[in-house]
Write a structure and sequence with these properties.
This protein is an alpha/beta fold and 337 residues long. The strands form two sheets. An eight-stranded mixed β-sheet has the order 3-2-1-4-10-6-11-9, with helices on both faces. A four-stranded mixed β-sheet has the order 5-12-7-8. β2, α2 and β3 form a beta-alpha-beta unit. α1 runs parallel beside α2 and α9 runs antiparallel to α10. The longest helix has 21 residues. It is globular.
Length: 337
């Protein structure tokens, strides 16, 4: 089989970003591409833009479907993928011209099942805010692959050695995906569905590469909290924590893994508190009070080595532990949280 790479790009109401994204894929130095644009029921003109791209490049296929969310759009792309490998690119992101070529060279050279790369975070003006660069390594064997999965769960209290849990910007073997019938769960059911999918993939893999490549450009949208308020966000974050805790137990990942998912849970809780800024002061206070009084959150805090955290994170968690909704609301208003 030729080393064709299927690139799946889910599209939903991203007309202002889609052109840059798709053009960055079209201009890849690696030409053997199967580009799949999955239009997930867009209503802003993105659908028509997808069709125009298809007219100008015979490597592009467009699938129009009813809106079901990111995870199920990726599943649709996987059903139609023709490549030996697959890469997922979000439609408001873009990649450097040699991105796919570099990943293919590595995955072929080392006969790996996947290549996990870093990324660069950019603002709306495409200025690089920071780059996440990993040390090159080859991971194999039960212990090694479990160690990789553990690092995907988050950071230790005072460390910063995690590897992104997202699937975008990586390269995966389609053979392994098809053999094991891997599918994404809907993010409408489980928030952060990527870590669940990566866990399923790595559990089936024999060899995975971690690569220093940071040529995937992830767009940071500063307005995302105000435009995507979700009433059940905290409950979904709590459910994700409990799912991952069960996963750690099932796969005997140990205490280190638990501490990592606990810290990631605290980061998600901070996001939940931040989104309360969109409410009136009275409702914001009430929303934060509901969060800090959650019994399961308080249990997690009691189990966690809070004093090992950096000062600002430690203060934030201690305010939650003491159920100080008043101070948290003031800090939230001042955008200090």
């Amino acid at each position: 089989m030729k080393n064709t790479v299927s690139i799946i790009i889910p599209v939903y109401n991203v007309k202002n970003y889609l052109k840059k994204c798709v053009n960055s894929v079209i201009k890849q130095t690696y030409k053997d591409l199967d580009i799949i644009l999955v239009d997930d029921g867009s209503t802003d003109g993105s659908s028509q833009l997808c069709d125009k791209f298809k007219e100008n490049d015979n490597r592009i296929r467009v699938i129009h479907k009813n809106n079901e969310g990111l995870g199920l759009a990726r599943n649709t792309g996987l059903l139609h993928a023709k490549g030996k490998y697959v890469s997922f690119i979000d439609s408001d992101d873009y990649v450097g011209t040699t991105f796919i070529e570099n990943l293919v060279k590595k995955i072929v050279k080392f006969s790996a099942d996947a290549c996990i790369a870093g990324y660069s975070k950019v603002d709306d003006n495409y200025k690089i805010l920071y780059s996440e660069i990993y040390d090159d390594c080859i991971v194999s064997g039960d212990i090694g692959l479990k160690g990789l999965l553990i690092r995907m769960l988050g950071n230790l209290p005072s460390g910063n050695d995690s590897i992104k849990m997202s699937v975008w910007g990586n390269l995966y073997s389609m053979e392994l995906i098809k053999e094991n019938k891997l599918k994404f769960v809907s993010e409408r059911k489980i928030i952060s569905e990527d870590i669940i999918w990566n866990n399923d993939f790595i559990t089936c893999a024999k060899r995975v590469l971690v690569d220093h490549n940071d040529d995937y450009f992830y767009l940071s949208n500063n307005n995302s909290l105000s435009t995507s308020y979700k009433k059940d966000r905290f409950q979904k974050c709590l459910e994700l924590y409990l799912i991952l805790k069960h996963l750690c137990s099932e796969e005997s990942l140990g205490k280190e893994a638990i501490m990592r998912i606990q810290k990631q849970f605290f980061i998600n809780v901070r996001t939940c508190i931040r989104q309360e800024r969109t409410k009136t002061l009275k409702k914001q206070f009430a929303g934060i009070k509901d969060i800090v009084n959650n019994k399961k959150l308080q249990v997690v805090i009691k189990e966690y080595p809070i004093d090992a955290l950096p000062y600002k994170q430690r203060l934030f968690i201690k305010l939650i532990k003491s159920k100080n909704s008043y101070c948290l609301t003031l800090l939230n208003i001042g955008r200090i949280v």
